[in-house]
Amino acid sequence: MTPDDRDLAKSLTLAAVAVICAVLSATLVITAGEALLAPSLPTSAAQAPALTNTAG
């Protein structure tokens, strides 16, 4: 394996680790956000206000 190949392999490894970290971070942030916002949002259609047609 040439030095250039080693550098390429290291770069690809670092890029893969960066992508995995970004996906895990995004998942954690989205999950935490949903957990914090879920109690304030209606969970079923029965709790949501009904829309009525007022345009005659």
TrEMBL record:
Superkingdom of this protein's organism: Bacteria
Keyword tags: Membrane, Transmembrane, Transmembrane helix
Organism: Brevundimonas aurantiaca
Name recorded for this polypeptide: Uncharacterized protein
Keyword Membrane: yes
TM region positions: 12-32
